[in-house]
Amino acid sequence: MPKTLEPPEIDRDLALDHGLTDDEYDEILDRLGRTPSFVELGIYSVMWSEHCSYKNSIALLQTLPQEGERLLAEVGEENAGLVDVGDGKAVAFKIESHNHPSAVEPYEG
Fold first, then answer.
1. Is 0.70 surpassed by the pTM of this model?
2. Among 6, 66, 78, 82, which has the highest number of CB atoms less than 10 A from its own CB?
3. Active site residues per annotation
4. Cα–Cα distance between 72 and 80 in angstroms, integer?
5. How far apart are CA 41 and CA 9, in angstroms?
6. pLDDT tens digits for 40-88?
């Protein structure tokens, strides 16, 4: 019979290795009222990652203009920004992204 792997001991260092911050690990402990399982830690680390939740960039993204005569596509119309730079030219700004953060729209994000 094949051997099964035992999950590692869950502690703060493992949470940090998974990309969580000290504050996020404390939040998990508070929400669960216990130490998370290895699977739960993995789920939190993915769902609270920059890739899925924009946890670090959202504050900066919200400072960008959302309307104006030089914006050629409305916010949410496309997943790239299109800015009129004059002389009949435009620049598209695209950051790899889901159409919507997975934490908000897990199936289509």
1. no
2. 82
3. 51, 98
4. 11
5. 11
6. 999 999 888 887 777 888 888 788 888 888 777 766 666 667 777 888 8
